[in-house]
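Course assignment 3, question 2. Fill in each field.
Student: A.L.
Task: Predict the tertiary structure for the chain below.
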Amino acid sequence: MKTIKAIIIGIGIWILAVSFYTLSFQFQIFEDANQQANMVLFSVIIPLVWLGSYLYYKKGSKIHGYFVGQIFLLVAAFLDALITVPLFVIPNGGSHYSFFTDFGFWTIALEILVITILYYYTIVYPKTKSLKPN
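Answer field:
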């Protein structure tokens, strides 16, 4: 497994996801800006993780999508703990505990894992099986 490649892609996914999340506050459509931002994040994670999976598997890696998803998730959690929580959550009265125990965080975490696993089983796994009968 190319761990460094997965980490770099995970950083890119996190940067783009946080950018969309913060940008959504500039274009407020719903009354609750936080709910709107969470909906944007939940929606944008799908194509970002799919694209990240594509970039990871582009050179023919066959590692299971769960492990790639775990790296993407761990990178995001690490960067959230290091950057997101101190810069955005704590100044608004939150804490690391409140951030990491929030249902929304775990929903996004599950979404990351499911998308990488789906990518693996729809794109990578079929290529690993021989089409020739035994």
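Instructor remarks: The mean pLDDT is 92. Residues 3-128 form one domain.
Grade: pending
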